[in-house]
Write a structure and sequence with these properties.
about 25% strand; about 325 residues; eight-stranded mixed sheet; alpha/beta; globular; four-stranded antiparallel sheet
Length: about 325
């Protein structure tokens, strides 16, 4: 399903640390290894504070990793000059959680949509309206929306404009950071359907960050589960519901609500709270919430190991049974 030759973006041993009070260090990402494939969607899921957004900030060169490297077609993004980073913006674009916060409220939609194209001198000023009309049609919005201001549109409409703006430069990689979490459920579905259609039409790679496992498994080709800065499981999206093996992934599945679920099966909560990122325990980071915790889990941090083709798990309990 995933070919080595199709890798567009590769994260190798990514570590990101921040200084904290009292001379301590907060490790937001710890030894992250992930691949983004051509025309595929990689979903990264986990609780708030697990390091998802920190990772994508490094992907789009807003932050530099403390250790490791992110390779785009073999080129280390952290080693790019300021001009090269600017030029590379054409290849990787981002859709933010709150489009209203990422728009200039004094600019009309026509200017918001065409600003990236004007910055890179892709179009002339006289071509702005025609290009805005084309971009709005691409995301299924009426052409006359180009004369509106962001505050005159609904949340779902603004997110469609955000997607149109991100795709205006024809990027190869689209990064979505919680792009649907602020939307109503019905609107979420339409936005996901739009992204799936555009991915097929343009053969773009998508890196989708989300805390909703039920949503992300519905359209992601591959899913990485993140906990306290660590990747604990990587598996094909269609296998999440019936073949996930890490206790944390299974706990996330048990905690999700569905209108189709058995009314006699209670929603299972994850026991206790996650430890502070400033005090990640030695050994497995999930140990204090795991019912299968062994002595080895408290002393040795499990590494990702392949349990089946395309499926890796970082768990002593799982891998010791192989």
């Amino acid at each position: 399903m995933f070919k080595e030759s199709d890798i567009v973006l590769k994260a190798e041993h990514i570590v990101k640390q921040f200084p904290a009070q009292g001379g301590r260090t907060l490790t937001a990402c710890n030894d992250i290894n992930l691949n983004v494939y051509k025309g595929k969607t990689l979903g990264i899921v986990g609780e708030s504070g697990c390091g998802k957004s920190t990772f994508v900030r490094m992907v789009i060169s807003l932050d530099k990793p403390t250790g490791g490297q992110i390779l785009y077609h073999g080129k280390n993004l952290a080693a790019l000059s300021k001009k090269e980073i600017w030029l590379n913006r054409q290849n990787m674009q981002m859709v933010f959680q709150d489009p209203l916060a990422s728009f200039n409220p004094k600019m009309k939609i026509v200017d918001i949509l065409t600003e990236p194209l004007m910055n890179f001198k892709k179009i002339k000023r006289s071509e702005k309206e025609a290009k805005a009309k084309e971009l709005l049609e691409m995301v299924e919005l009426p052409a006359d929306f180009m004369y509106r201001y962001p505050h005159n549109m609904s949340g779902g409409q603004r997110q469609r404009v955000s997607i149109a703006r991100a795709l205006s430069l024809e990027p190869e990689v689209l990064v979505c950071d919680e792009a649907t979490s602020a939307l109503d459920v019905s609107v979420q579905e339409s936005i996901i359907a739009l992204l799936v259609r555009l991915q097929k039409e343009k053969n773009i790679s998508i890196l989708f960050i989300c805390h909703d496992l039920a949503l992300i498994q519905s359209f992601s080709h591959q899913i990485a589960v993140m906990y306290l800065g660590h990747i604990v499981e990587v598996l094909p999206g269609e296998e999440v519901a019936h073949n996930s093996q890490h206790p944390y992934t299974q706990a996330l599945l048990g905690a999700q609500f569905s209108i189709h679920m058995d009314p006699h099966t209670p929603i299972e909560s994850i026991e206790s709270e996650a430890p502070s990122p400033l005090a990640v325990p030695r050994g497995c980071p999930f140990q204090n919430r795991c019912e299968h915790c062994m002595e080895k889990c408290r002393t040795h941090r499990p590494a990702l190991k392949e349990v089946s083709p395309g499926h890796e798990v970082a768990c002593h309990y799982v891998t010791d049974k192989l």
